[in-house]
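Last lecture ended with a question: if I hand you only a sequence, what can you say about the shape of the protein? Today we answer it with a concrete record. The protein is Redox-sensing transcriptional repressor Rex. Below, first the input exactly as provided, then the predicted structure, then a couple of comments.
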Amino acid sequence: MTQVRRSAQQAAVPPSTVARLPGYLRALDELASAGVTTTSSDELARAAGVGPAQLRKDLSYLGSYGRRGVGYDVAHLAEQVGVVLGLRVERRVVIVGIGYLGHALASYSGFAERGFAVVALVDVDEAVVGTLVGGLVVEPFDELARVVAATGATIGVIATPAAAAQDVCDALVAAGVGGILTFAPRALRTPAHVDVRAVDVASELQILAFHDTRRQVPGA
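The predicted structure:
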């Protein structure tokens, strides 16, 4: 079971609520972009895809209850959510595996918009090492520890084939990285102090296939 260091305020927020906060922040950003300055719990819940009661309960953990007859101040609430998620301090990211996926992630502008800075790219392929991707030179995998120390990266992204993922994970942990996002379709073993989030596209598609099949079966 993974653990994450949190501030006193964040420690009181249940993991299930934390998982929904990015959706609330995305909805708030969309409302702000549309010129909306205040929003009701019903409107925000609808934009975030949750029920109003669930949203109010989640936001109560942040100490935000809105104002009766007025609702939530969009900018202020977005700031609160950002603080709880730790997005008001830039997080430095190293991406390991610069194939098609790694290349796309390295060039993705959305990271910077959320307070994440991709500061290093690493690969084992000599044909890739030394090339320029997203404005960064790809470094050799055997220099990962030096790269992490030099850049101050605290989050690692694994975009390698599944067979290499555990070795990459071990190397990231040994280098001092405390948070790992993996796209490799396999479970990773990590120490308790390292937090791991997995994005398994194939598994998500299989779940969609299950529900699609049920929709096509009468009475299911």
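Comments.
1. The chain has a mean pLDDT of 88.
2. The chain has two domains: 8-85, 91-203.
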